[in-house]
TrEMBL record:
It catalyses: tRNA(His) + L-histidine + ATP = L-histidyl-tRNA(His) + AMP + diphosphate + H(+). It comes from Lentilactobacillus kosonis. Its EC number is 6.1.1.21. One of its GO terms (molecular function) is histidine-tRNA ligase activity. It is an enzyme of class 6 (ligase). This is histidine--tRNA ligase.
Length: 236
């Protein structure tokens, strides 16, 4: 790193690709040893959700994003594809910036964002013969009622996406009425509703937004074969 780079953002030396810099910081203390209680709790929660979704990840103690307004977690999504050359290539990177809106004169508001390498992504999609669908509706919207339902709705959405369905859920802790309104706005074909009672019985209420028909189904069936749930209960 140059003197001007060090003066502008000294933490970038931790993420330097220069072998001389890497040798200098090899014995530097880990930033993870200096997290506040709030940051540690947040980071633990993020890792727990990744584990819940069976998403593999590596904790990189030396990664530093170039922008100075990030708070809590930063991340990079990398791939090892010959279509992009040898070794791992970053195709997406970002993080959380809870204070950015307020810093720019707006209200206190949390935020998260990322930058995506569109050209790299297009090369990857082409190499894997993947065509992105053009959607004007959502297959499923998962509605969670109660604090304890957040994790299970997240798992359901991920399982449905893995099974080829377009699915989404609420991320703003909105009331049920607002969640159903969002489902309607997204033109969702089905809603899956889980409250504390359903969580206890490990069931969910699946409703057709077209016919209005609603049935109670084991969560395990929704996550393993939602096509069968639709066929057995809604196809006429």
């Amino acid at each position: 790193m140059t003197q001007s780079q060090i003066a502008q953002n000294p933490l970038r030396v931790l993420d330097s690709k220069d072998k001389r810099d890497q040798e200098i910081v090899k014995g530097a203390p880990s930033i993870l040893d200096y997290l506040s209680d709030d940051s540690q709790a947040h980071f633990t929660a993020v890792k727990h959700l990744l584990d819940t979704l069976d998403i593999e990840y590596d904790v990189d103690e030396t990664m530093v994003r170039g922008l100075d307004y990030y708070t809590h977690t930063i991340f990079e999504i990398m791939v090892d594809s010959k279509s992009l050359g040898e070794g791992y290539t970053t195709i997406c990177a970002g993080g959380r910036y809870n204070g950015l809106v307020e810093e720019l004169g707006g209200p206190e508001m949390p935020g998260i964002g990322f930058g995506l390498g569109v050209e790299r992504l297009m090369v990857l999609l082409d190499a894997q013969n993947i065509e992105l669908p053009i959607l004007d509706q959502l297959d499923v919207y998962a509605v969670g009622i109660g604090e304890g339902t957040s994790e299970v709705t997240l798992k359901i959405v991920q399982a449905l996406r893995d099974d080829g369905f377009s699915a989404d859920r609420d991320y703003l802790d909105r009331k049920p009425k607002a969640q159903f309104k969002a489902a309607d706005k997204l033109n969702a074909q089905f809603t899956i509703t889980i409250g504390d009672r359903e969580l206890e019985s490990q069931t969910a209420n699946v409703k057709s937004m077209v016919s209005g028909k609603e049935v109670s189904v084991p969560i395990s069936e929704i996550m393993t074969n939602f096509n069968t749930v639709i066929t057995n209960n809604f196809d006429e």
